[in-house]
Design a protein that fits this description.
heterodimer; A: mainly alpha; globular; B: alpha+beta; 2 domains; 5-stranded mixed β-sheet; 11 helices; 20% helix; 21% strand
Chain lengths: 212, 321
């Protein structure tokens, strides 16, 4: 198992698998199968995949610990970057077809409409994480600061779910399913943090405890 | 009142229905006809009426209507596969899949309340009340998409006058069919059912307000509100209630489903208005399906202002959204 995870071929295969949703969308677009409202179809599909990749990224650490497979960490950056990639697709569809490049319209949406405010925030928070995802940036920032910054992904996860929840008209089943998944993934971290006090607690958490 | 004349040609006159619904099969058949003739198969077998998405009856004769728009009619495929009918699922593709077994015959519509002659009508009786008209209307959903549909029916006022509404009848309340057995996905809808809607009496009696029994020259498909529905073209689509079973003339403004669900977002009037945004999105533009770009400017009263704006003289349409 360990040797499979370590292989560079595994990484290449996982990379290609992560591109399958994009490939399917391109295929469906070229065969005219994007439903009667293609823009909405693309918005929903790319939004779904953004949330799914955020969840997959967040699942890496718990799975590493639970399964005892530390090598899984090799895939985390790729998953995170794919979350950002599908987020970019999502925003591009909105920019191109929904707003037809009306930047004033987009800004008005971001300010006025809370589901867009929160979704846009979640998206923007991923930008610094994508930029600083390289080994060079980890070195430059130093591991603790880098890790602290990259906890912003928790906020993106929460913002993404709220964005979805506020968007639907009445049937909240799907947003609640995503909320449940994110709650488990974030809840595990809280649990793991308090379960093993022998590990040095992050500075911010200690400060919060003192203040609280 | 300015009324645009439409050409006398009806949508159903242009191309035989079998061919335009099954046009892919038709083209396919054209290519294969020669070879298959040898194998003893005819072209008519290829254009198989059984392959249709729903059972339908051709409605004729159809009178054309001065209210029809001359805009390009949306492909029937779009109108029958992209539906908001939450009793059959909340995804747009759900109703086309889940409404196929919905039983719409026999069907009775009860007309009651503040009227001198309340009574029940069978669907057949309603069909014979007046000559059927084809009315090509723009249909604007509150979700900022729009279609152009050749509906079939006649003005709601034709039926209303028969039961002689009393002066107490200031509003009309409409109720949809609801049955948890036939609509097992109802519990996921997130809205109170049965679906209810309402109009002010003058809105209901306006000649544009259509009692609708068909579209594209045929009876209504189940997912589009079979067997009988309302169509109010200057209001957002959700006002046009589907699968109508009860019409009640009432004194006070009746409750309406989306207003019950979220009063902040969906008002009683819900007239199409590009200047009053939905709290979550702008209503200034719409996407004309099946297009990609949301760049069609939405018109006040969905372009029916010449006919209906006077109904709202002196009203603040920002408050009465």
């Amino acid at each position: 198992m360990n040797s499979i995870l370590k292989s560079k071929w595994t990484k290449a295969v996982v990379f290609l698998i992560c591109l399958v949703p994009l490939g399917l969308l391109i295929w469906e677009a070229s065969t005219g199968n994007l439903s009667s409202n293609p823009t909405q179809f693309l918005e929903h599909a790319t939004g779904d995949w953004t949330l799914r990749f955020v969840a997959i990224t967040l699942a890496v650490t718990p799975l590493r610990k639970i399964l005892g497979q530390p090598q899984l960490i090799r895939f985390r950056r790729m998953f995170g970057l794919f979350a950002f990639f599908y987020g970019c697709c999502h925003f591009s569809v909105y920019l191109t077809f929904d707003q037809v490049f009306d930047l004033h319209g987009i800004w008005a949406d971001v300010i006025k409409r809370r589901y867009i405010t929160v979704g846009f925030t979640g998206f923007v928070l991923m930008i610094p994480l994508a930029i600083t995802s390289t080994a060079g940036w980890i070195r430059r920032l130093g591991q603790p600061r880098w890790q602290w910054l990259h906890r912003a992904i928790y906020l993106t996860a929460i913002a993404g779910v709220i964005h979805y929840y506020w968007l639907v008209k009445s049937d909240i089943h799907l947003p609640l399913e995503y909320a449940a998944v994110m709650a488990i993934l974030l809840g595990w971290r809280v649990y793991a943090h308090y379960k093993r006090p022998q590990h040095a607690a992050p500075v911010a958490a200690v400060a919060a405890q003192k203040n609280g | 009142m300015l009324v645009k004349r439409s050409p006398e040609l009806k949508y159903s006159d242009i191309t035989p229905r079998d061919i335009y619904v099954n046009r892919r099969k038709f083209l396919y058949g054209m290519g294969l006809a020669g070879g298959l003739a040898l194998a003893g198969k005819s072209l008519t077998e290829l254009i198989d009426p059984q392959a249709r998405a729903f059972a339908s009856t051709k409605l004729s004769p159809l009178a054309s209507s001065p209210f029809s728009t001359t805009e390009k009619v949306t492909a029937e495929q779009v109108v029958t596969t992209y539906n908001n009918y939450y009793e059959f699922g909340t995804d747009k593709a759900d109703p086309a899949k889940n409404a196929q077994k919905f039983v719409t015959s026999p069907w009775t519509v009860s007309v009651e309340g503040e009227c001198a002659k309340p009574r029940k009508f069978s669907l057949d009786e309603i069909m014979k009340l007046a000559p059927l008209e084809e009315r090509i209307y723009r249909h604007r959903c509150v979700e900022a998409w729009s279609i152009v549909v050749p509906w079939v029916g006649f003005s709601f006022s034709t039926l209303a006058k028969l039961v002689e509404p009393t002066p107490n009848a200031r509003y009309v309340a409409f109720t949809s069919y609801f049955d948890t057995k036939q609509m097992p996905l109802w519990s996921r809808a997130g809205i109170q059912l049965p679906y209810v809607e309402g109009l002010r009496m003058d809105e209901a009696m306006h000649p544009l307000t259509l009692l609708c029994m068909g579209m594209y020259g045929e009876s209504l498909p189940n997912q589009d509100g079979a067997p009988i529905r309302m169509v109010i073209p200057w209001k957002y689509g959700f006002k046009s209630i589907k699968s109508l079973v009860k019409i009640k003339f009432v004194k006070d403004q009746p409750p309406t489903t989306w207003n019950i669900t979220n009063a902040h977002e969906y008002g009683f009037y819900s007239n199409v208005n590009p200047k009053v945004d939905h709290p979550r999105w702008s209503q200034a533009h719409e996407v004309r399906l099946p297009g990609f770009f949301k760049n069609t400017a939405t018109q006040m009263f969905n372009g029916y202002g010449d006919q209906v704006a006077s109904l709202y003289n002196g009203m603040d349409l920002k408050k009465n959204y």
